[in-house]
Write a structure and sequence with these properties.
The protein is mainly alpha-helical. Helices cover 81% and strands 0% of the residues. The longest helix is centred in the C-terminal third of the chain and has 39 residues. The chain is globular.
Length: 248
């Protein structure tokens, strides 16, 4: 059995196990509803449009924070790479960055941007941007010297060398940073909405949890899981193609 089908079999077995445990009452309905009921509830929610505004807000915030973190992270990575003394000073801080609980900065962002999506996006960007900085540094470090020498032999300008040689060579590593930025944006936005917002999927899940509305809560959680799985699958397909091209 291939790795892909083994993964599908494991996930299917886990879902069937949870379904069976819920149906026979080992897992009480007050704790968790059966996966098949989650699918039914999700269908009702999507058909009614009850949470359409929350869904739109959350995925818009995730998209904006992903784009900002990728662009800012790439620009910061290039600047840090071009200044070795700055890199020596900053790199140890990057290594320990994720030990800092970024949510503590939320009061500062409220002061700067007010209550709402802008502050949530700022937290998500703060959480995601360092992964892109690190990936950019890693990608630029791993460009083979022979490629840069080839550009010098052909007397290519600095701009052409960057666009035609360095960027394609570093692309697989940069894309790893993009994948991590997407993941951290999901985490940052939904977690921020969960504890700090009055709108969005995270807020809707927390609201349903507080009211013991397990149907809504698990249906929305299923929606998030499906969205993350679809996005990760698409990104992994692109990543595999970039890795395959690099190994040719």
């Amino acid at each position: 059995m291939s790795e892909k089908w083994l993964r599908v079999a494991v996930v299917t077995a886990m879902i069937l196990l949870v379904e069976a445990l819920c149906r026979v009452g080992v897992i009480p309905r007050m704790v968790m509803i059966a996966p098949s009921d989650m699918v039914v509830e999700l269908g009702k929610i999507l058909a009614s449009g009850q949470f359409s505004a929350d869904i739109r807000i959350t995925f818009t915030n995730i998209a904006i924070s992903t784009v900002l973190s990728v662009l800012l992270g790439f620009a910061a990575g290039v600047i840090i790479y071009s200044l070795p003394s700055l890199r020596d000073a900053i790199e140890p801080l990057l290594a320990s960055y994720y030990a800092v609980p970024t949510f503590v900065f939320y009061p500062i962002f409220i002061t700067l941007f007010g209550v709402g999506s802008a502050s949530i996006i700022a937290i998500a960007v703060l959480l995601a941007v360092v992964s892109m900085v690190t990936a950019t540094l890693n990608g630029l470090d791993r460009i083979p010297r022979v490629l840069r020498k080839t550009g010098q032999i052909y007397r290519m300008s600095r701009t052409k060398t960057a666009l035609l040689i360095e960027l394609p060579a570093a692309m697989p590593y940069l894309f790893t940073g993009v994948k991590l930025s997407v993941a951290y944006s999901f985490i940052g936005v939904i977690a921020s909405e969960f504890i700090l917002s009055g709108a969005g999927l995270g807020y809707a899940i927390a609201y349903a949890y507080n009211l013991f509305e397990n149907g809504h809560m698990y249906a929305l959680m299923l929606l998030v899981l499906i969205a993350v799985t679809v996005v990760n699958t698409l990104l992994n397909i692109v990543d595999r193609r970039l890795q395959a091209r690099r190994q040719r």
